[in-house]
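Input chain follows. Return structure tokens only.
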Amino acid sequence: MKAIGFYLVTDTHYFENALGAGGAAFEKNMLTEQYFVKESSAIVNSVFKRISEDKETDVVIIPGDLTKNGELESHKSFIKELYRLRESGKKIFVITAGHDYNDSAYVLQGDGRVPVEGANFDDLCEMYRDFGYGNALAIDEPTHSYMAQVTDGIRMLAICCDSKDQPKGAMDERLMTWAKEQLDKAKEDNCSVFAICHYPIIPSVPVFDLVGDAKIKEWRKVASFLADNGVELILTGHMHIQSINEYYSENGNRLIDVCTSCLVGSPAKYRKITVDENSVLKVKTIDVEDFGWDMNGLTAQEYFYRQFFEAIINRVRGALNGGKGIVGHLKSFGRKRFDKLTVGTLGRILFIKIDKSLKNKKLTELVGEVGVGIFLGDGPNTEGTPVYNLISGVLKRFSFVVKKFEPKLAKDGNKVDLNKMLFDTIGNNKAYSDNNAEFILK
């Protein structure tokens, strides 16, 4: 690939505050929300301003979930932000995703939902025509996927997998046929191609392979298709996580998937990506910094962290609600114990040796820390660390349950090793970072 540099910003989830959001229903929703709603416009404005000040890099890529939930007014305001960014000399390429069109859009006010006008899928290409669609070399009308000339000798395949009447979260045979035609044409024109897609192609962390919506459907098939047709780099979002992963097809061709976090919520990061004249790909992660909001004395990253940390704990509490009979009693018992239980007490219950650094830590705190840590990337809980040893001990105690479930989780002939899957999720056991990495492209 020829030399190029660009910014990668994902999942902006822009919300127009004039629509209104507040009251009991909104506050309840925010208890389990990873990203901020009211703050989103200020965050986007601040980050775009910072990007506009970089006079050396003129390309910005945003792969989907541009708005909170497809509100038409949110689109209008976000597009104004894009035009201001374009005035600084940037070329901007976007795709849309599931949060960008909605026939039943609403905001949370008072004790419930208030309907607002939503964007129609069929109108999105025209709305964003100045940000990729208008100058596209080819557009797949059913999905709004497109091929664009980013710079001399380099094209971008924009894969949209959240269209109105097509399989959601999938790249089906029809779309693959269209994409292959564009990739073949690029090869004929002596252009290299990278791709973008809202959904990760490669599961961001191994346990996400078990979550249907966490990656593109039939991901191995799609990854092999792209790699075998000349795409070595794809930029993704959707899962609000920092991750970089490699996959090799049976033909030995590589795909590198750079998945980037939600801009407006923890981990609240974006990327600057460069390829130099020697085909060295460098991925640099940049933190969202102060965005002019009262954060009660916290730094921006502390503010984001606290929101997600508490959301994880509240989701666990929520999972311990409901149920009838013995299930309900067990959940009730677990809910009461969850907030009080220390890691040391858990160790005594399960006869597991606990490192003294964890003994007095509440289980709620540990769950929040590990959860946020997974999404931050570069998981620190590798072999030999106290958290690794704790989880290893728990898995040994319940090994009979693990072995029973592994065959049921296997799909398409791919065996599941839950132990390895979990340890590779909480700790980065790859040879490169999820945040700042370097590769040599072919």
